[in-house]
Amino acid sequence: MDLLSFMVLFACILVSSLKISVANDSIKVSQSMHDGKTLVSKGGKFELGFFSPGSSQKRYLGIWYKNIRIQTVVWVANRENPINDSSGILTVNSTGNLVLTQNESLVWYTNSHKQAQNPVVELLDSGNLVIRNEGDTDTEGYLWQSFDYPSDTLLPEMKLGSDLRTGLERKYIAWKSPDDPSPGDIFRVLKLYNYPEIYMMKGTQKLFRYGPWNGLCFSGIADLRNNSIYGFNFVRNKDEVYYTFSLVSDHVITRTVTNQSGSISRYVWAVGEDQDWKVYRSYPKEFCDTYSLCGPYGYCVSTQSQSCQCLKGFSPKSPERWNSSDWSQGCVRNKPLRCKDKLTEGFVKFKGLKVPDTTSTWLDESIGLEECRVKCLNNCSCMAFTNSDIRGGGSGCAMWFGELVDMKMYVIGGQDLYIRMDASELEPVHRHKKKMGTIVAATVAAICGVLILLSTYFVCGIRRNNAGNSLSEVYNEKHMDDLDIQLFDLLTIATATNDFSTKNKIGEGGFGPVYKGILTNGQEIAVKTLSRSSWQGVTEFINEVKLIAKLQHRSLVKLLGCCIQEQEKMLIYEYMANGSLDSFIFDDRKSKLLQWPERFHIICGIARGLMYLHQDSRLRIIHRDLKASNILLDENLCPKISDFGIARTFGGDQFEGSTSRVVGTSGYMAPEYAVDGLFSVKSDVFSFGILVLEIVCGKRNKGLYHTDMNHNLVGHAWTLWKSGKMLDLIDLNMKESLCVVQEVLRCLHVSLLCVQQYPEDRPTMMSVILMLESNMELVDPKEHGFISRNTLGEIDLRSNRKDTCSSTDVTMTLLEAR
Fold first, then answer.
1. Is the pLDDT confidence value at 817 over 80?
2. Which tens digit of pLDDT belongs to each residue from 324-378?
3. Radius of gyration of the chain from Cα atoms?
4. Chain Cα centroid distance, residue 439
5. Separation of alpha carbons 459 and 485, rounded Å
6. Whose CB has fewer CB within 10 Å in the chain, the N or C terminal residue?
């Protein structure tokens, strides 16, 4: 293959000549960088090029300090896909993306969807590799930047945390070894709990916890404060949550590294005769920093011969194991809580603590300590509270729910924590005050008991209601961790939907009806109710809540909150003014509103949302029910993927799974899934291919399109493809004047690549986007693997399912354990 064909194949990269010299700190569209060449930032601080780590012979594209004699790599592009020789080439294409190739093979590729105009790649003196439009110096206008996709090293001005607008999560993953920069299983991440905090993790296991930010420092590392070397900041607002540090002096060189050993080390470059990296600080720094070492209601104190102690009012749950230094079971109360009325309980103040793990917390920065105490006292599930900001006498309110774990006692420093205790454990003066204020306290408690619905419900985790079982009995409460959404009470939702009036009903699926509502603040919402007769139970409901609460992307529907009260279970979404995609493309009148520009925009938007699920979200997510009715359209006809009730999540290195019970929708399921229960990202790709065909053609896949009454839309498209008549598929409701024929044919071509029989033949969603948005050459598709209704009948799936179909969709509803 000649060079020009190769460049067309991988992204429309226009290379006028390989002899053009590379600019010192930048690359333009007409330039490329080979192995052996480098970019150097203008101030000479950082260098970008190809390197081999340690004793390895493999080649990687990375960034390192330019003038430090020990090569110290701070960022690696192709961590998971090394180059075997010196044939690597880095180029920037006209869409504003970097492409790394080796011998005509794609190695690594950036994924910017911003508008590119004369894009330039530049290495900055901060160590940030950026793609920007030529002449644009605004940092907010970067098309892409390496600081958003860190490796193991945190540099000054880099962020550890999440962009809530895009769902981008910046976490720092250790190298597997000094010879292997591929991602290890140790990483540093900021968890977006109500009261966020940073953890060192090993897979799903928590190793070390910073403690939440208290306005001055992190509660668990009180010695990490502004100093003569660097200052740091913690930002939490509606757009972003992150930690960052900045240098006091430009002459200091410092970085923090996440190590595969499970430690975080801050290094400072020693000038003068030493000329080496010195460890300035390292965490965890002592035995007591081990996560949850002392179990529930235990705390660790490094100055004691017995490191773990029980809080006052608590005793070891297993004295025998405790005395043998096995503290994992922690401590239990001497006097169990009764919560019969507010006079039987109160709070004991504990000083100098690293406050507990914040997984199950509630935060309100607008109220003070006394109002915080009242709220906690009136909620039997609230176990502790304190100020969220300790500056200037304290402000804000943080409340803990469930067991208190991972506490540490400081000799100097720490925070106050108020822990719920039985009245008999309170100091006499407290009990006297309570007795003197019986009438007032009882009155206040009664009023608060009516007004504060959190006393029964909190963050979708019901402890008990009078009408049925609690969620904790149906679904283990530990699976409710990490939820960060608003809880709506039933009265609010009933008022918003005009008491679930039929006039407000905007749709219905197997789960139950969907209603439009308007909150008292004027916000429009969509209320997805789970009918009591629905196949979708608490498991599916919680699954959807847990998934969507963590996902933030412009092509995914936004979950505003949930309601679980009495026998009702509801999800509260942002309202999509134009409803579902199927209501447009399969309706002769409304489909005329979707001309080709709108349809192509919808196809690309769905593709980006699906790629986010498969590749860029915190967990790899397989949707398993991608179809036209699960694509919602906002007022601008922008698509948003919805309905994650049967989705499955995987860790970073897992791509597929299997099940003995198939769930999904007839007409969209991949053959390996429908027949053998095997699902992967490629089964979602198959469903996407079906969806693209339906969008272009305006017809359902499950219809009959051939005289032998045996072809569905996929089979019909395949027949026309072989006969060279693909244009016959185009929806007649689209005006020819608005059609870009080459774009339409490319979409149809890509759709057939997506529905090939074998998963390994189907492209990834990243490749799909590249094919849709470029003029790269496409390979011919192999025969499709669609499973017809007749075949589904033969494998006897119908006999095992409950039908939950509308007039147009049949959803397989066999439940499976997750």
1. no
2. 889 999 999 999 998 876 678 999 999 999 999 999 999 999 999 999 999 999 9
3. 29
4. 49
5. 7
6. N
**Domain limit, last residue, from 574, 604, 636:** 574
Domain containing 569: what range? 471-574
Ordered DSSP codes for 106-160: EEEE----SPPSSEEEEE-TTS-EEEEETT---GGG-SEEGGGS--SEEPTT--E
Average pLDDT, the chain: 81
In a domain, 293, yes or no: no
Which of 280, 250, 279 has the alpha carbon at shortest distance from 44? 250
Task: Report CA-CA distances (Å) from 192 to 120, 164, 753.
Answer: 34, 10, 38
How many Å apart are CA 798 and CA 511, to the nearest integer? 19
- Residue 240: how many other CB atoms lie within 10 Å: 16
Phi, psi of 648 (to 5 degrees): -125, 145
Per annotation, catalytic residue among 152, 406, 582, 625: 625
Give yes or no for a cis peptide into 284 (omega within 30° of 0): yes
Burial letters for 28-37: b for 16+ Cβ neighbours within 10 Å, e otherwise?
bbebbbebee
Q: 339 and 419: one domain?
A: yes
**For 294, which DSSP code?**
T
430, 433, 435, 439 alpha-carbon torsion, rounded to 10°: -130
Q: What are residue 590's DSSP bridge partners?
A: none
Q: Is 152 noted as a catalytic residue in this protein?
A: no
Rounded Cα gap, residues 617 and 169, in angstroms: 8
User: What is the maximum span of the chain, computed from C-alpha positions, in angstroms?
Assistant: 92
Boundary-marking domain end, from 130, 147, 164: 147
Between helices 765-772 and 596-611, what is the axis angle to 10°?
Answer: 150
- Report which of 565, 567, 568 is spatially closest to residue 454, judged by C-alpha positions: 565
Which residue, among 381, 320, 383, 313, has the nearest Cα to 355 in the 3D structure?
383
Q: For residue 515, which of 523, 368, 506 has the smallest C-alpha distance? A: 506
What pTM was estimated for this model as a whole? 0.55
Report yes or no on 380 lying in a domain: yes
- Lowest mean pLDDT of 253-257, 322-326, 454-458, 649-653, name the range: 454-458
Encoded tokens for 543 = 């699954």
Dihedral through CA 578, CA 582, CA 585, CA 589, nearest 10? Answer: -60
Question: Quick one: three-class SS letters along 533-571?
Answer: CCCCCHHHHHHHHHHHHHCCCCCECCEEEEEEECCEEEE
pLDDT tens, residue by residue, 722-735: 888 888 888 888 87
Residue 659, pLDDT score: 60
Nearest to 511 by CA among 666, 644, 701: 644
Joined tokens for residue 97: 């993306």
Name every residue whose Cβ is closer than 8 Å to that of residue 276 and which is 6 or more positions away in sequence.
70, 269, 270
HSE-up of 446 (CA within 13 Å, CB side)? Answer: 6
Q: Is the dihedral of CA 380, 383, 386, 389 positive or negative?
A: negative
Length of the chain: 818
The CATH number of residue 499's host domain is 3.30.200.20
